[in-house]
Amino acid sequence: MKTLIEVLQSGTAYLAGRGVESARLVMEQLMSHILDCPRLQLYIRFESVVPESHLVSLRDGIKRLGSGEPLQYVVGDTEFMGHRFKTDARALIPRPDTESLVIRVLECAPLWVMDNPVIADIGTGSGCVAISLALVKSEARYRAVDAREAALELARENAAMNGVAPLMEFRCGNLLEGFEPESLHAVVANLPYIPTVECQQLPRHIRDYEPLSALDGGADGLDFIRQLAVQAFRVLRPGGWLFLEIGFDQGALVVEWLENHQFTDIRIHKDLGNRDRVVVASR
Fold it and tell me: Rounded distance, CA 23 to CA 170, Å?
């Protein structure tokens, strides 16, 4: 028999020895998930015996974490914009930086005075962006697009889990191909924007487990963003809006590209870490 504190200490030591960052916190989060209790409650249960069935699950989880697999894939979900989303290797893990993208869409007052706006979420992945918008703005209709059918399957599951599936349409395709001219009120996109040479320098829990196709943005990271901007000008209605998540050092290049392709009212917004993260532009 092992007590909770014994498992916590031995698991933390194992993870730290394998280079897992914040090993104690990661171990606490794993235990909180498997024992189905708030993380802080672990501290008042230190001397309790961990049931054998939970020990088996904990050993499996610790092994996976020690190999570099992200915690969110091990436990199978994560929080984004205050909601739960299933997470697995079919799509990137939703990250706090991307909440800045959702916030900018929600704060765009001219978009929300339009009647029943139609919004396309390009590169939807887990669906976290479109679903988070739908949970706040149910008057809109959402088109969730991804080039990978596996990612769309995950997005559908998340939409159903969060109760917004009736508001959404899912499309497997390349960016905005197939959309009619002037058919959208807004385009929102968190596309691959990491330069190819930097992809192999990413931490192993990202590089070895999350889908590379959702990370690699080409030589300077902007291949997909450039393509999308050209397409977006065609499919957006006059007065429509484009929202792009970008790398912290890409703002000036993206603004220049959008200006050269007739977008107006272009603005760069910061993320929670005060880094350039979102570009907003009007058609």
Answer: 38
Burial 133-145 (b: 16+ CB within 10 A, else e): bbbebeebbbbbb
Mean residue pLDDT across the chain: 96
Measured from the Cβ of residue 19, the count of other Cβ atoms closer than 10 Å reads 12
pLDDT > 70 in the chain, percent: 100
Residues 31-75 pLDDT 10s: 999 999 999 999 999 999 999 999 999 999 999 999 999 999 999
CA 114 to chain centre: 27
Indicate the pTM of the whole model: 0.93
Domain 82-282, second-level architecture? 3-Layer(aba) Sandwich (3.40)
Report the Cα 64 to chain-centroid distance in Å. 21
| Amino acid at site 41 | Q
Q: Are 192 and 123 in contact (CB under 8 A)?
A: yes
Q: Assess contact for 127 and 159: CB atoms under 8 A.
A: yes
Asked if the model's pLDDT at residue 137 lies above 90, the reply is yes
User: Residue 246: which residues within 8 A CB-CB, separation 6 or more?
Assistant: 193, 225, 254, 276, 277, 278, 279
Q: Which residue has the tokens 């349409």?
A: 169
Distance CA 215, CA 193 (A): 6
Nearest to 139 by CA among 117, 109, 170: 117
Q: Is-contact 263 233, C-beta < 8 A?
A: yes
d(CA 228, CA 244): 10
Contact partners, residue 72, CB within 8 Å, separation at least 6: 78, 87, 93
pLDDT tens digits, 218-273 = 999 999 999 999 999 999 999 999 999 999 999 999 999 999 999 999 999 999 88
How is the chain split into domains, by residue range?
4-67, 82-282
